[in-house]
Specification:
The chain is α/β, with parallel strands linked by helices. Helices cover 27% and strands 27% of the residues. The protein has 2 domains: 1-33 and 124-171 and 278-320, FAD/NAD(P)-binding domain (3-Layer(bba) Sandwich); 40-104 and 173-276, Alpha-Beta Complex (Polyamine Oxidase, Chain A, domain 2), CATH 3.90.660. Strand 6 (82-86) and strand 7 (89-92) form a beta hairpin.
Length: 320
C-alpha cells in the first residue's frame, strides 16, 4: 500500500509515522523548508523561542508514550504554573488547567517534529497544487492521500480532486508572535506564563521561555514570547514589525517593569492559521470508504496534542 501525506505538521507526521511502522510505503509532502507546522522554534542571537505551540500536555495518550520514549533530557517537565492577567493584576490561574503536567523541549519544541520525521520520506519545499481523481500527485499514484494542512487549504485541494463533500464551516484566527530577548535576568515570579483569558488586552499570552525550560537564554538573560490577541492580530497582520513589537514591548513593561521596556533582540512570527475557532469531527470530515482523508486541528481543536490524535486515528482506519 502507498500513502501520501500532504503537510508535515504534527498531525501529518504522526499519521505518517504510524503507517510507516506498520510497513506502509509513505511519502510526506511539505511546502515549506521546515518540519512541524506550529511546532516551530526560532533562534535569534543567543535566545531560543517556541513561536507557535509553546508546550504539550499529552496526558495518557499515544503522543505521551512517544514523548516518554525520547532520549533523557529531550523533554522537560515544566515546574511552574500559568497565571492570569485580569483587571490590571496578575493572579493565580485556573487550577483545573494547571493540574495537568505540561512539557517543553530542551532546544525547542521543533525537536519533536524532527524526531517524528526521522526515517520518513519527507519532501520539503514541495507544494502540491492538485490531486487528480485517479489518486495521483505529480504523476505518482497512491492508495490513500491524507491532507493535514489547515482545513481551508485542505478544502481547496479537495476541489482539485473533484471531491464534493460538504463540511461545516471551519474558521481560523491569525496570531502574531513577538520574540523578545533581554539582557536582564528573568522576572522574580512564581509562574512561567501569563494568559488573558478574556482577551481584553492586545497581549493574550506571555511565555517566559527562560523560566519554562533550560537553555533558552544565556545566564542572566531572559527570553520571552508574546502572543497578540485575535483582534490585534487580525488588524495588524500586515503591519510593519516595528508597530507590532512596540505594542508587545509596551505590554511587557506594564506587566514586569522598566527593564522589560528595552529588549536586546526582537523578531515577529506571523501565523495566518493559528487556532481553529470552529471545528468539525473526523467522522464528519471523512465519509466511509474515502481514500482522501482530512486530519488536523480543524477536526479536533487548537491544541497540538488533539491534532496529533486525528493523524493517529486516520492511520488506524487506513490500516484497517
Amino acid at each position: 500500500m502507498r500513502v501520501a501525506v500532504i503537510g508535515a505538521g504534527i498531525a501529518g507526521l504522526g499519521c505518517a509515522r504510524k503507517l510507516k511502522e506498520a510497513g506502509v510505503d509513505v511519502t510526506v509532502f511539505e511546502k515549506s523548508r521546515g518540519l512541524g507546522g506550529r511546532l516551530a522554534t526560532r533562534r535569534v542571537g543567543p535566545y531560543t523561542f517556541d513561536t507557535g505551540a509553546t508546550t504539550l500536555t499529552p496526558r495518557e495518550s499515544e503522543l505521551g508514550r512517544y514523548m516518554a520514549s525520547l532520549p533523557i533530557g529531550t523533554v522537560e517537565l515544566i515546574s511552574r504554573p500559568v497565571y492570569a492577567f485580569e483587571f490590571g493584576r496578575i493572579v493565580p490561574g485556573d487550577s483545573s488547567k494547571n493540574k495537568d503536567p505540561r512539557y517543553g523541549f530542551r532546544g525547542g519544541i521543533s525537536r519533536l517534529a524532527k524526531s517524528l520525521a526521522d526515517g520518513l520520506d519527507v519532501r520539503l519545499e514541495t507544494r502540491v497544487e492538485a490531486i487528480s481523481g485517479q489518486r495521483e500527485i505529480a504523476g505518482e499514484t497512491y492508495d490513500h492521500i491524507v491532507l493535514s494542512a489547515p482545513t481551508p487549504q485542505a478544502l481547496e485541494l479537495l476541489g482539485t480532486a473533484s471531491d464534493a463533500r460538504r463540511l461545516p464551516q471551519v474558521s481560523y484566527r491569525p496570531c502574531l508572535s513577538v520574540l523578545l530577548g533581554y539582557a536582564t535576568p528573568d522576572p522574580d515570579v512564581p509562574f512561567y506564563a501569563v494568559i488573558d483569558p478574556h482577551q481584553r488586552n492586545p497581549i493574550v499570552w506571555v511565555s517566559i521561555e527562560s523560566l519554562k525550560v533550560s537553555g533558552r537564554a544565556p545566564e542572566g538573560h531572559c527570553a520571552v514570547v508574546v502572543q497578540m490577541n485575535r483582534d490585534f492580530s487580525r488588524d495588524h497582520y500586515t503591519s510593519p514589525d516595528d508597530r507590532i513589537i512596540e505594542e508587545a514591548v509596551s505590554g511587557m513593561e506594564r506587566l514586569f517593569g522598566e527593564p522589560f521596556g528595552q529588549p536586546a533582540v526582537t523578531d515577529v512570527k506571523r501565523w495566518r492559521y493559528s487556532q481553529p475557532e470552529q471545528v468539525t469531527t473526523l467522522d464528519t470530515a471523512n465519509p466511509p470508504g474515502t481514500w482522501l482523508w482530512l486530519i488536523g486541528d480543524g477536526l479536533a481543536g487548537g491544541r497540538a496534542e488533539l491534532a496529533y490524535s486525528t493523524g493517529i486515528e486516520a492511520a488506524g482506519r487506513i490500516l484497517s
